[in-house]
Every structure is written in C-alpha cells, then in structure tokens.
Design brief:
Blueprint: E1 2-3, H1 11-20, H2 25-35, E2 46-52, E3 55-64, E4 72-80, H3 89-101, E5 107-110, H4 115-123, E6 127-131, E7 134-139
Helix pairs in contact: 1-2
Length: 140
Amino acid sequence: MAPLRPSSSQLERLAIEAKEQGYAFVGRLINEAKSGTNNFDKTGECFLGVFIDEVLVGCGGVNVDPFTDQDIGRLRHIYVLKAYRRKGIASKLVKQLLNHSKTPFTSVRLRTPDQNANAFYEAIGFFRVSHEYATHTIET
C-alpha cells in the first residue's frame, strides 16, 4: 500500500472494470482529480493505492467530509479489482485509511447504496446511520 495521486494513469484499469460492473465512482474520481475538484490534498486527507507485484489492484481515500464539520472524514472511492476481492485487501485498505484519520478526524462517514458494501463496512466496525449524506459512520 502506498500513497497514490488520484490523477494517476494507473487508475484507468480500475475505472474500466468498475464501469463494466456498473460503478461510475472510479471514473468520477479521475475526472475530479483532473479538474482539480478533489486531489485528496487538504489537511488530513489521503489517497492510497494497493499494489501486488507492482500492479495497482485497489484504491481508496479519505477526505474532509464536505457535508458536516471539518473534524469528520469521509471514506471515498474504495475499489478493488474483482480478481483480488475476498482476500482481505479492502479491509486492510480501509483500516489503513482509518488509522491515518485518527489524528485529524473524530469520526469517518461514508455513503453507499450497494448491499454488499453495506455488509462489508458493518463487518469491519461501521454503524449504519440515517442521514441524507451518509449511510455509515465509525469513531476514530
């Protein structure tokens, strides 16, 4: 796992697969980075890539949550290539992002409409919430 610029061309492979599976968020991540809208470069933010044999197989980051106070983070753009799922990669990635978030944020939130993702986040300690801009939260 290593820091990764969200504008990295290495993300294209992930964006293609994600789009084929009906997930537009990796492509949106790349577009936001290219436009300068979101580069995960504010205080407390980070974006990581997961590499196996120097090949990018997953990514994800944490931003300042734009929908609430500045001391709350927002987990964003977590994606692992299908061939590498169910191997603990996403869990390790999220745990690393949460560890990074302990100092700048009191909690981290996320929003997902995906039922598999709901089960995943709840299994690693997130609690479901009823909020317009978040489905889950965890204290850091």
